[in-house]
Design brief:
InterPro entries: Cys/Met-Metab_PyrdxlP-dep_enz (IPR000277), PyrdxlP-dep_Trfase (IPR015424), PyrdxlP-dep_Trfase_major (IPR015421), PyrdxlP-dep_Trfase_small (IPR015422). By secondary structure, the chain is of the alpha/beta class. It contains 13 helices and twelve strands. It binds pyridoxal-5'-phosphate.
Length: 379
Amino acid sequence: MKFGTKAIHAGVHPDPTTGAIMTPIYQTSTYVQASPGKHKGYEYSRTQNPTRDALQNNLAALENGKYGLCFSSGMGAIDAILKLFKPGDEIISTNDLYGGSYRIFTKIYQNFGIKFHFINMDDIQSIETYINSQTKLIWLETPTNPLLNIIDIAGAAKIAKNHQVLVAVDNTFASPYLQNPLDLGADIVMHSVTKYLAGHSDVVMGALIVNDDDLHSRLAFIQNASGAVSGPQDAFLVLRGIKTLHLRMQRHCENGRAIAEFLVSHPKVSKVYWPGLESHNNYAIAKSQMRDFGGMLSFTLKGDNMEDATRVMESFKVFSLAESLGGVESLCTHPATMTHASIPKEVREKAGLKDTLIRLSIGVEDAEDLIDDLKQAIG
Ligand SMILES: *Cc1c(COP(=O)(O)O)cnc(C)c1O
């Protein structure tokens, strides 16, 4: 099945009792048993819920994986991955990543004795020098948040296989429409479902997708034992949102290109971060592992001063200044004070994240209106 057909049909079956084409919201905590232990596969909704099952199967299909697991947030999904490890284990991570990921790594799991190495992964071979007998996981985010760096997933997976290390990819920025890390050799795909998958800025949810039976049972055990599960109402909203994922992503990509090209030629803009530009330092890898380049981009202004950047962010009429991304409406974010404030300034700057960087999540409005808004805001 092709992507758009899977988005609409995979994992979803008409309701067995009524034929309802939309998966019902099974708003129940428990399920009646005929006699002790004799049930229909459902005992308690932390463990199994039919609405969540439909979404988990749909997400697995979109990522060409065997199993999906949903969590109460993207951070809940990352937390479940980290619970696979124990004190003394080491994790190698990209140094440009979502602020919340950096925070859970350094402020929570580092206290439990897990060691993290944050490195620049522009040259994927550099991972090798950080691998030792304690290394258990390589954590990739690509494209990265907020600098839109591109990391070679297949290259990382090849190195990891040689050392029997797992590879997890935060695929939030790309969505399964643009990139499928499992096909490139990754072991775990992670999504903040909150973003493109849900797509309408009305749900917070996370997901993991895997192929390996043993890895799935270990993560499903953690999902149930730790209990950060998503609710049936949210699963319904995401199933509804995913039915148009391919249509939305197509427009996000078209608008992303139009705005990247507009900004590149603007006399007041100094740098545009978007992987679809041939000037992007990893354009070749982006082109080989992604089907298109998405609707996330960042930029800086000439002169590089905070007053100019602030004025632009305050002047938008169509873009809204808000955290998050991937919804139908265009958003503007100031990473240094918003999404990435949990990363210390000196660590941010070492990774190339300036305080004056402006990040845009390009929505699915008409590109002309978005460009007009940028024109008047930049001035
Ligand atoms: C938002 C985000 C997360 C965290 O997901 P939540 O659903 O907000 O918990 C993780 N990674 C990336 C790249 C994100 O953008």
